[in-house]
Amino acid sequence: MNLVELLQIASSEEKAEGFLRERGVLKTFDSCPFCHAKNIGKIRRNFYKCYKCKKEWSVRKDSILEDLKIPFSKFILAVKLFILEVPAHKSHKELDLAYNTTHKIYTKLRQCIYKFVSKDDQLLSGEVEIDESYFGGKRKGSRGRGAKNKIPVFGILERNGKVKVEIVKDVSAETLLRETIKKVKRGSLIYTDKFKSYDGLVMYGFKHERIDKSVKFANGKVYINGIEGFWSYVKERLLKFHGVSKDNFIYYLKELEFRYNFMDNIDDSLYKCLGGIN
Ligand SMILES: [Zn+2]
Q: Domains of the chain by range and CATH?
């Protein structure tokens, strides 16, 4: 959905509500959400009532909009600006909203994405590249003294498929093998660099090829440029956020995993997250 089409929808609250309902973002109740009685009805704009238990609920019940006091039209515009990577400190002006409100919307979007991405337990397979990288901290370097105070992240990329990333407590063989077993189908062909922690892959039923990057970056099909491309993608974007706190880092990381995997269909994919549809 391009911006012009979206502006049409955002031109009326009714259209915007319909748009959100079609995508499952607003829930449609055919019975009372409290007592399940069928005898319910609309009592005033945006409110429903159960005639059995007498309880009332808003059209926003059980949705991401439940505690957002903004019009539906502004919400869908905010989602679009989020998709277009306009940071909250800029988009709030475009939306004529307080920064805090926009920040709250963005945080909720990231939480939805995190939930959606975490539910995906499909194993990666075929030809797979794995690698670790470090984020945060001031010193350059990795895998040594430079890695101190940085967050180690483990990444797995299926060639022509998805990428999956996880924050890990360390980059020991034990940790990285455990993550690999959790996310990659046995029998897959795994490409790594020469890092020692990957020594045991064959013992766990994987095929394993490694590239010595101190000699050359690729040897035929033996390379890890795919996952390294993803690290550059993430680092470039994190720079825009001028430092993400350690506690929030996982949400930004998962957002970027999601954006990378659904690049070609980001609008629909994000609405799937918001509608809780997997
Ligand atoms: Zn009821």
A: 127-243 (3.30.420.10)
